[in-house]
Structures are given as structure tokens and as C-alpha cells.
Amino acid sequence: MAKVTIIGATGNVGTFAAHTVSEIPYVSEMLLVGKPGREDLLGGCCHDLSDSFAARGTHVRLTYSTCLADAEGSDIVICTAGVPRRPGQDRNDLALENAKIIAEVAGTIGRSSPDTILLMVTNPVDVMTAVALKYSGLQPRQVFGLGTHLDSMRLKSLIARYFRVHVSEVHTRIIGEHGESMVPLWSATTIGGIQIHNLPTFSGLPIQDMVDAVRTSGQAIIRDKGSTVYGPGEAIATLVRTILGDENRILTVSSYITSEIHGIGEVCIGVPARLNRNGIYPVPIRLQGDEIIGFQGSVQKIRAITAEVMDRLEKEE
Fold first, then answer.
1. pLDDT tens digits for range 261-313
2. Which of 29, 89, 164, 185 is the one with CA 20 to 30 A from 179?
3. Which of 61, 76, 159, 160 is nearest to 120 (CA)?
4. Catalytic residues, which ones?
5. Is 199 exposed, middle or buried (0-12, 13-18, 19+ CB in 10 A)?
6. Nearest 5°: phi and psi at 81?
7. CATH code matching the domain that covers 149-306, chosen among 3.90.1170.40, 3.30.365.10, 3.30.2310.20, 3.90.110.10
8. What CATH topology corresponds to 2-145?
9. Residue 201 gets which letter from DSSP?
10. Judging by DSSP bridges, how do beta strands 249-257 and 267-276 pair with one another?
11. Whole-prediction pTM value?
């Protein structure tokens, strides 16, 4: 049985993630962490969640704190803390502002919970994963981000709708930045085990429209309802369940790569990775021509933003 800590638990994503993660049978203890001064709100969240546990028949020990050190002994720490993206704002506009928060959080988690696995949700998630990795002092296998997992699921849903098949029949991935330079892997997309290019109806697939819809999905939701909640919350629970269940599933998450993909690396970015109780392990893959070019461009973009953020953090220390 496992202890899971959620940092930023009073935010919309953090609160819903607490609800989805509580349904995982491997979770026996959950700690909700918020800012000092949020004690009443944290208490209210715990009370409300406890009522839902009672109605559902879930037995999870639920506590709250404003002290990060109380995360000690956590098997997984989920970090949703930070300034949320506002309507019309690019994820990367948040980079430095949130990096300052994440550097402090990661440092404390690294000292108090050296054996934990740290899941980053804060945007821009690829850059924040790199910041968390550096300032936590944890091993690369212990730190990863939500990355393009949800983007991949969004594309999967659109493809299933177009071909009128159950979503479980579709397998696809988006790699690279969780943002504008994301790269869909059509070469790795299958429907019912059949490579998508081998389906005659593929020629009519509105590829660009689908990719654009995925790219702007988060922004559209933020514009219409203020924040993304349910998609990220369920995606977080999937990752936590995969790790605690030691499932060895291959999911597309932001992780540190060196040379696994055509020798491109030294960056935290969305790639296929194997997840289990020991951590996150990027899977070496080969891409096709346009995919390689797209991924190289995405890596260069994230590497540059990460370097700038790291440099400014060091100057402000």
C-alpha cells in the first residue's frame, strides 16, 4: 500500500486529482499540501473528499498540511503547484514564474523524500520537469512530467470518433513539447492493430485539423470554463495507477532523455517511457523523416527555454 502526496491540492487540478487518485486500490494514505494560510480550504477539501469516500466505500487515510516536509515517506508526490495559465497565455509565458516555485518545492521533496517518484503537472511541464530534476537531486528515473500523455489521449479520441470505433481500438502517440511544437507519430498509429496508413479511409483523415484541435484544446477549455480539470485529473490517476501497480505500461510522458531517440537528448520532453514501481524509463524508438525533423525542432525549443530559465534561476539565488 502506498502514500501519495498532492502539492497544490487546493487548486482545481489538485483537488480533482485527489478524487481520482483516491480510487486507486494501492493507495492507503493521501496527504494534501497547500500554502500557509490555506488551512481552512485544505480542511474543507479533506472534509468533502472524506464524504465522497464514505459514499463510495473507499478507505483512504486523508490528511492535510502546509509543510512540504510532511511528504516524507511518500511513494509518489504529485506537484500541481504554481500559477495557472490564463486565457490567451502561452504555457511558456509561465516558465520563470513557476520555476521559482518548483525549485523550492523540489529541493524540499528531494531532502524529505529521497525515495519518492515525483510527478510534475505544473506548466510548462517539460521545463518544470527539468527544474524539478535539478533542484530535487533525485535520479532521472524518479522525476517525470504529465507531458504529452493527455495530448496523446486527445488525439486518440479524435481518431476513434472519425473512424467510428471504440477508443480502445486506437493506439497513437504525440511526442515532444506539451505545447505548440508537439509531434504526432502517425507512423506509430494503429486501429484494431492495423497500421493507419493501410486503411483506405486514411486518405480523407483531416490530419491538420486534428493536430490543431489537440494543440489548442487546453486553451479552448480555459477560455470556455476557466481551467482544465477533468482531463488532467484522470490522466494523473492513470500514471499513478500504472506506477503503483507495477504495470510496465509504455505511456508518453515528459522524462529526461540522452540519446534514446536518434541521438537527440539532454532534455526533459515527452517521449514513450516504461512506467513501474521503480520509476520511469524512456524507450528507444526510431522515427520517420518528418517526425525526426519535428522532434528535433521541439527539443531545440524546450532545451533553449530550459537553459534560459535555469540561467535566470541561478542568477537570482
1. 999 989 999 999 999 999 999 999 999 999 999 999 999 999 999 999 999 99
2. 164
3. 76
4. 178
5. middle
6. -65, 150
7. 3.90.110.10
8. Rossmann fold (3.40.50)
9. G
10. antiparallel
11. 0.95
